[in-house]
Amino acid sequence: MQADEPEVPGNPAVPVVKRSEEFWIEGPGTAVFKVENTLYRLSKVSLMDQSVAFFNMFSLPESESPEGTSADYPIVLQGINAKEWEDMLVSCVVIRWSPKPRPPEYWINILKLASLYQIPHMVIKASYKLPAYNDEVLPPAKRLFLARAYNVPDLVDTGFKSLCHINQPLSLMTNDDIESIGFRAMVILAQTKEKIELLRKKVAITPPDYGNAGHVTECKARQDCWRAWKSAWWDLFGRSINQPSLQAPWIAELWSYEVTLHMKKAVGMHPGCLTKMLELTKKDQSSAKQIHEAIELGITRVKEGIVAM
Q: Residue 284 CB: number of other CB atoms within 10 A?
């Protein structure tokens, strides 16, 4: 018995079963449910209008069983708690509008019960609401767990992207996070992060070559200019890009560090060529595009695994 459950006087082993004050409707066409230690009396029609599972339940020919007819014979709902049940009732059965933003737990409860009792439009709504929360209140691993548990591939996008961009070795992940992510998704995540790291190293050691577009017409020693650009790239860009603490896309991040101020000290480059090279590099989206493609491929593979479950 839970420590906070009320006890029957004279019998501490039996918790008190109470009626819900908010969800108790008198009259015909109702059914009584019991969730944990609370009783609910609800309109059958309201439940049938929302839920395929309850439609099927109440469409069966009436039997001689008294289940659901009174507080003495409630329909006992297993595997859920009273908070989850009441959140579902508020969202789609006994609708109650709230001016305050809902916490993610509310929509997780909706997702769980809407999946359990087959309420498709609420699964869609919860799937739309949950990705909007930031990683602090709804961690990426939790998103992937919800996606797998309730077969909602749309939840993969934000969770997988965040995990790819977090500058933390997979070896530092907690066991709970690994279990939440799942084996298949964890392997795909490791492969995707490896691709991004290989790209980081490539970008760090390979200065972008823009050919003639990177030089001004006044430049008469383009080979010397190119060699100076290569040397300056590693010293002022490559070393920084190679640091794991730098977030991708790395070139854009470096600009915020004003590395270009130091880059202008590159020895041996025509000033006009240096200016053009820096302008082209700042606009260059090739590495960002490759990162995006690697992550999108990973997301697609994770979703395929969820749909196939």
A: 16
Name the band, by pLDDT with cuts 50, 70 and 90, for residue 275: confident
Query: Around 15, how many Cα atoms within 13 Å sit in the side-chain half-sphere?
Result: 12
| Alpha-carbon gap, residue 218 to 307, rounded angstroms | 59
Whole-structure pTM value: 0.79
Decide: 42 and 22 in contact? Cβ < 8 Å. Answer: no
For the chain, the first-to-last Cα distance in angstroms comes to 36
Mean of pLDDT values over 120-145 = 93
Q: Give residue 254's pLDDT band: very low, low, confident or very high (50, 70, 90).
A: low
Omega before 61 cis (within 30°)?
A: no
- Find the helix or strand (DSSP H, E) in which 272 lies: helix 271-283
CA separation for the pair 109, 169 (Å, rounded): 32
The closest of 123, 134, 178, 176 to 159, measured between CA atoms, is 134
Beta strands in 81-198 (DSSP E): none
The residues pairing with 70 across neighbouring beta strands, listed in sequence order, are 73
DSSP state of 12: E
* Fold of domain 7-121: Potassium Channel Kv1.1; Chain A (3.30.710)
CA–CA separation, 219 and 229 (whole Å): 13
pLDDT of residue 106: 95
3-class SS string, 93-107: CCCCCCCCCCCHHHH
Map out the domains of the chain as residue ranges. Answer: 7-121, 134-198+291-308, 209-283
Contact 248, 165 (CB under 8 A): yes
Give the list of residues 6+ apart from residue 244 with CB closer than 8 angstroms, or none. 167
Question: What is the C-alpha R_g of the chain?
Answer: 30
Confidence of residue 126 (pLDDT cuts 50, 70, 90): very high
